[in-house]
Amino acid sequence: MRGTRAYSGVDPFTGMGRTINVAAGVIQSDEPCMAEGLPVFSPGLIDLQVNGYYGHDLNDGELSAGQVEALSEALCRVGVAAYLPTLITANEANICQRLYAIQEAAEKLPYSRQMIAGVHIEGPSISSKDGPRGAHPREHIRSPSIEEFESWQEAAAGLVAMITIAPELDGAIDYLREIAKRGVIVALGHSDASEEDIYQAADAGARLSTHLGNGLAATLPRHPNAVWAQLAEDRLSASLILDGHHLPNSTAQVMIRAKGSERVVLVSDSVKFAGMAPGRYTSPIGGDVEVSGNGRVSISGTQFLAGSGFSLLKIVSNFSILTGLPFPVAVTMATKNPAQFLNRSVDLKPGKRADFILFDLDYDTGTAQPRDIIFGGESVMQ
User: Fold this and answer.
1) Does any domain span residue 69?
2) Is 260 exposed, middle or buried (0-12, 13-18, 19+ CB in 10 A)?
3) Is residue 346, in this structure, part of any structural domain at all?
4) Which residue in 339, 348, 49 sits closest to 212, CA to CA?
């Protein structure tokens, strides 16, 4: 076929060399090849929690479809093939307005149409306590309501795919049971839950812990507590922010051992300052924010985090340094595992869209560097 381009690399899941032939944005065929000296393939990344990136913010004022599209385009250039735009706690009118803008982008605009796999609403039914609440505005925290959920789905044309909720709130268990029946992914987070609350939520259909180890009180009972309960509950997978700031390396390593690599999902939880130059910025949520040279985003003059400054690509690239685990484990946690929640396939096989990354691995340092990022058959690497 005219215009066919060939990409050779190592399959991270089999260790075998393969050449993928791409034309018209689609994988046409593949064939085996020698693996020695080749980069490593990864399917395009899937991020279940994105608040913003590189100056684009989903939670600041009135959102437009054009702003959503700009975010989608920026994300594809750092290897993201699919994502859940994430809205945090706000009043109902603002949430619905932002949902409508996301739905419009997903319906009409090219990058968003390919990339938006649903919407993640983080809140507003979370703990109002300092610590578990994080940066969510207390004045908009409220009890769960099926009527409000239905208004979200109307505004989003059914795109709401995931909701993070604190299971200890009055009515939360009945609420999450109902939305789970409707096919929504129920995640537990920003919570002061007891062990029993966690188990009841899993019984009712909760499937995921949102950024486990964060969105919690600064101090917890030695045992039992919500972290131990979520680690022990096999019905819950865990999303982790492995940027080196949200979790100490040792904590991340133990969490992965406890959950098993098949039940861990890497997320960026990136905010608008991710990918931006070091310096001081102003945020409508956190006020004055400092971006450090190592990507840490914090409230100016404090050690409190103001979101994640890493893209999922950067998290995957540094994964082996932080965890000591092989690079293919990172690929699994950033592609196959989140894809299962969205009922998607990440197999790079004929007939599929050509969305993938070629990584060069440095076995001395443990880092991985993208050599090329292919989106819809075209290189988009900056």
Assistant:
1) yes
2) exposed
3) no
4) 49
User: Any idea which of 2-11, 61-70, 85-94, 228-237 has the lowest mean pLDDT?
Assistant: 2-11
Report the DSSP pairing between strands 17-23 and 5-10: antiparallel
Q: How many CB atoms neighbour CB 107 within 10 A?
A: 13
N-to-C CA span, the chain: 28
Question: What pairs with residue 162 in β-bridges?
Answer: 120, 185
Instruction: Determine the Cα–Cα distance for residues 58 and 36; give it in Å rounded to an integer.
Output: 43
Q: Could you tell me the pTM of the whole model?
A: 0.97
pLDDT tens column, 235-267: 999 999 999 999 999 999 999 999 999 999 999
Domain hosting residue 195, numbered range? 43-341
Residues 257 and 375 in one domain: no
Phi-psi region of 244 (alpha: psi -120 to 50; beta: other; left: phi over 0): left
Percentages helix, strand, coil for the chain, rounded to the nearest 5? 30, 25, 40
How many other CB atoms are there within 10 angstroms of residue 340's CB atom? 15
Please tell me whether residues 26 and 98 are part of one structural domain: no
Together in a domain, 21 and 129 = no
The pair of structure tokens assigned to 337 is 């595992």
CA–CA distance, 63 with 186 (Å, rounded to integer): 25
Residues 305 and 366 in one domain: no
106 in any annotated domain: yes
Domain count, the chain: 2
Whole-angstrom distance, CA of residue 221 vs CA of residue 295: 31
Shared domain for 82 and 58, answered yes or no, is: yes
CB 256 within 8 A of CB 40: no
> Residue 1: what pLDDT?
53
Secondary structure letter of residue 270 according to DSSP: B
Do residue 229 and residue 267 come from a single domain? Answer: yes
203 residue type, one letter: D
Q: Who contacts 126 (Cβ-Cβ below 8 Å, separation ≥6)?
A: 89, 132, 133, 136, 141, 164, 165, 166, 169, 189, 190, 191, 215
* Cβ 188 vs Cβ 236: under 8 Å: yes
